[in-house]
Amino acid sequence: MTPAPSGHAGGGRWRPYALLAVPAAVYGTFVLYPLATTVRLAFYDWNGIATPVVTGVGNFVELMTNGRFVPALSHNAVFLVFYTVIPVALALLLTVLLAQDRPVGGLSVYRVGLFVPQVMPMVVVGVVWGWIYSPVNGVLAAVVEALGGEAAPYLGQVSTALPAVGMVASWVQYGFALVLFLAGIQRIDRTLYEAAAVDGGGRWDKLRHVTLPGLRSEIVVATVVSLIAAVRVFDLVFVMTRGGPSDSTNVVAYEIYRSAFLQREVGLAAAGATVMITIILALSLVVIRYGEQRD
Predict the structure, then answer these.
(1) Contact at 8 Å (CB) between 196 and 101?
(2) What mean pLDDT do residues 260-264 have?
(3) Three-class secondary structure of residue 48 per DSSP
(4) How far apart are the C-alpha atoms of 249 and 219, rounded to whole Å?
(5) Distances in Å between the alpha carbon of 108 and those of 87, 99, 181, 182, 255?
(6) Is 70 exceeded by the pLDDT of residue 10?
(7) Higher pLDDT, 229 or 4
(8) CA 115 from chain center: how many Å?
């Protein structure tokens, strides 16, 4: 028996577009339109109230010469180490210890426990670590004094404030990479590790020739997400230091906030946001292209 036609001829051709219409409308309304508006405002001098005045590239010139944006950008470059290099390396190390040769018992418990920092709100993380770093009654001060040292205001010194915030970022970020790597290593054929052991390969040889190639896609994803987090970091800095002391922890996102909401230089803030978006896209493209070439 010939099945009855389910619709008019060619109707199935438009069904995927119909299903994508609502998500595309939402994405365009809440992502693309604000993004385009931000880029447009980057070429205007506007305080948020008066009529915008076209300035061309004037806002971008001011960004490069005002003495705040470029140092803030350099701080984001330092955060790339704390958000990307340290967490990915730490996650790889833990993955090797927990699941490379023989998965340890209760792996799911380790996965959940080590992922906890990633799911905590950043505001909570900032408040808790601000208390830990406190030189008066903080946990770190108590430990240092118990060991015979002298507690220091880690968030109040120019030399230590940025690394102190960066270490908190590493503690938060490594859980995401760890979960990715633990999930990815379970799909690697275990016979490859057995073959490497038969050939006399040690743990380092297995990591180099089996684990890293097998986790290449997960490493790319973790690196891209971590790079984006490093460039747009704001909440930790806002809660813990407000960019201080002496702008030693000021970052691009906080500089954008300060320009837009404290100094009412919306055009300048939009120019900073445009630069930040461009950097994120460029870094993500480089990492993804590198991963594809390696594949």
Answers:
(1) no
(2) 92
(3) coil
(4) 28
(5) 20, 11, 13, 10, 40
(6) no
(7) 229
(8) 15
Q: Determine the longest span between alpha carbons in the chain, in angstroms.
A: 89
Distance between CA 216 and CA 213 in Å, rounded? 5
Cβ-based neighbours of 187, under 8 Å, separated by 6 or more: 214
Give the span between the Cα atoms of 182 and 289, in whole angstroms. 24
Is pLDDT above 60 for 17?
yes
Task: State mean pLDDT over 89-98.
Answer: 89
DSSP per-residue string spanning 126-170? HHHHHHHT-TTT-HHHHHHHHTT-----TTTSHHHHHHHHHHHHH
User: What are the chain's domains?
Assistant: 69-249 (1.10.3720.10)
**Residue whose structure tokens are 């590198």:** 290
- pTM summary value: 0.86
Mean predicted confidence (pLDDT) in 182-201: 84
Q: Report the C-alpha gap between 162 and 237 in whole angstroms.
A: 9
pLDDT at residue 293 greater than cutoff 80: no
For residues 234 and 163, give the distance between their C-alpha atoms in angstroms, rounded to a whole number: 15
Provide the pLDDT for residue 11: 57
DSSP per-residue codes, 167-190: HHHHHHHHHHHHHHHHHHHTTS-H
The pLDDT score that the predictor gives to residue 33 is 95
Count the neighbouring beta carbons within 10 Å of the beta carbon of residue 195: 14
Give pairs for 238-244: CB < 8 Å, separation 24+: 238/126, 239/122, 239/123, 239/126, 239/127, 239/130, 240/126, 240/129, 240/130, 240/133, 240/155, 240/164, 240/165, 240/168, 241/155, 241/161, 241/165, 244/161
Task: Tell me which DSSP letter residue 99 carries.
Answer: I
Mean pLDDT, residues 156-178 taken together: 94
